[in-house]
Amino acid sequence: MEAFIKWAKQKLDVDRRLLLIYCVVYFLWGLGMNWFGTEMEIARFTFWWQVITCYILYMVPISLLLRGLPFHQQYAYGLIAMGLLEFGGYALGTSYAYPNNLVDQFFTERNFSLAMALFFALYFPLGNWAVGRIYTALFKKR
To answer: Is 1 part of any domain?
Structure first.
């Protein structure tokens, strides 16, 4: 356990500018997805501020821990993280799935949370890639 804590602290010890980019990108991404889910009547957060708790306080640290791993490993570990988040959100009622939404119609209601977790697990490798590109473009000398 001690080795894991040391490893996690090392992975989370990043340049503050990088952390700021993660927070801005994920916050805007979360607002956009919550807006899209609401407009398309797929799913939404119960409260707008859940974008902060889910995207910044939950997903950013996980992204930092997964950063540098191959795409498939980021996706696999991200799937576990998103599965727990999706299950918890719908079980606790902090997320709302619209009845008979597009995902239900395509995958069936019983597979809604699974479909959402499979989709949102892509956030980790894609988010790490996008933030890395932005950070490099802004702060790395050529």
So the answer is: no
What is the per-residue pLDDT across 66-102, written as a single tens digit (0 to 9) for each?
Answer: 999 999 999 999 999 999 999 999 999 999 999 999 9
- C-alpha 117/C-alpha 79 separation (Å) is 6
Q: Are 48 and 23 in contact (CB under 8 A)?
A: no
Q: 65-68, long-range: CB within 8 Å, 24+ apart, which pairs?
A: 65/8, 65/11, 65/12, 66/124, 66/125, 66/128, 67/11, 67/128, 67/132
Q: Is 141 a member of any domain?
A: no
CB-based contacts of 134: which residues, under 8 Å, 6+ apart? 21, 25
The reply to whether 45 falls in a domain is yes
pLDDT of res. 142: 61
Residue type, 1: M
Tokens of 1: 């356990």
For 68: left if phi > 0, alpha if psi spans -120 to 50, otherwise beta; the answer is: left
Give the pTM.
Answer: 0.91
Domain with 33 in it:
15-132
9: in domain = no
